[in-house]
Amino acid sequence: DIEYVLVQGNLDIDINNIVYDSRKAQKDDVFVGSANIRQYYPTCNPDTIIRILCKYIKDKWVISLSKEFLSLGYVVLGNSSSNILGHINLLDIDYSIVRNFKCDYLRFCDDTIFISNNKQAVRSAVTYYMQKVTEGGQTVKPNWSIHKVSDKNMVDFLGVRIGTTHRKLRKRNRKEIESRLSELKRSSDFFE
Hints:
Number of strands: 9
Distance between the termini: 27 Å
Strand order of the largest sheet: 4-5-3-6
Largest sheet: 4 strands, antiparallel
Oligomer: single chain
């Protein structure tokens, strides 16, 4: 299983269990908000990234290297540094949400979800997130949503659809994996 970092307390958590644990703990409905940023990497603000880096890292060589990676004026997608710098871009927003809103919050670069048994808490956190992202010069995609989680209305996060009792790969991702496996079987003796 892939693990993602929950910003609060910097704990590693398993995304596959967060919805189940929330439902068990509260025995209530679980609401999820999701919001993604349009053209995330090209719209990351290099000045914001350097400001945040300077706040937490005192090593001048690391700062200098980061400035070099950002010298084009944006985060270059595919570069070995893009995921790291992409995460740093929204770090101040992450910490503010964790401190001020009563919901679980997970973010992987531009993919973000908010989870709570309180729909208003999710709505407040999503609204704040969209406001701060916009103030930073980026745009949240118009398909953001808030909904109650069920096995028919699942959480879609990083290619996996998560319900209250099970999870599934997105159809598109499953088909791509099946296609790649078929190609591999045809071109390799490994599967014989």
